[in-house]
Amino acid sequence: MLEVENVVTRYGVIEALKGVSIRVERGEIVAIIGANGAGKSTLLMTICGQPRAASGRIRFEGREITDLPTYDIVRLGIVQAPEGRRIFPRMTVYENLLMGAVPTGGRYLEEDLERVFALFPRLKERLHQRGGTLSGGEQQMLCIGRALMARPKLLLLDEPSLGIAPILVRQIFEAIVAINRERGLSILLVEQNAYQALKIAHRGYVLASGRVVREGTGRQLLADPEVRAAYLEGGQ
Fold this sequence. Notes:
Blueprint (H helix, E strand, L loop, with lengths): L1 E10 L2 E11 L4 E6 L5 H8 L7 E6 L2 E2 L5 H7 L1 E4 L11 H8 L8 H11 L1 H5 L10 H13 L5 E5 L7 H18 L2 E5 L3 H7 L2 E6 L2 E7 H6 L1 H8 L4
Parallel strand pairs: 3-8, 3-9, 6-7, 7-8
Antiparallel strand pairs: 1-2, 1-4, 4-5, 9-10
């Protein structure tokens, strides 16, 4: 479904990605783990066209999207729930969700709202509350809900557990699994909580200094001694 081939991304003279290749098959959850500064978020942003890949190729459903503008990439079905949530704090929950429906022209608004509320009932309870007054976990639910309103084929999730309470982390990961199983939605997940990410992932990649240094199934990476030492047992 998604093929990233030998992609290099630069910020000025600094290479953030140094020839990264990954793939996501239809219906998969694929996890990207690694230390801070490894290039995980840059990879997701490069897939979405901001920043542009300096070299390499990105294909989605057989079509090259490397040089497409972000709005065309979204229309093709790739939607990101970004790191830090980036909701519209002065807008209500309902207004934030409406913003997510812009790529579909609101054609499925009521149906999609009900799907989001079934996944995150708390959003329905907070429907007319301003986004900026929600808790961190509620804002993350809103961020994912807003992305789902665009009816993605591939959902990019960037650090969904960052800065939220442990009890809500479990709810977020349960929701990710439900989205994948019930809708067959493909998910590319960047996550600091390597254990939780690999536990639910069909496959995973380890990034270090802008390069893929390990890949395998979620179970294989969980059992890998070097991965365990670096990311699952407090090491670096």
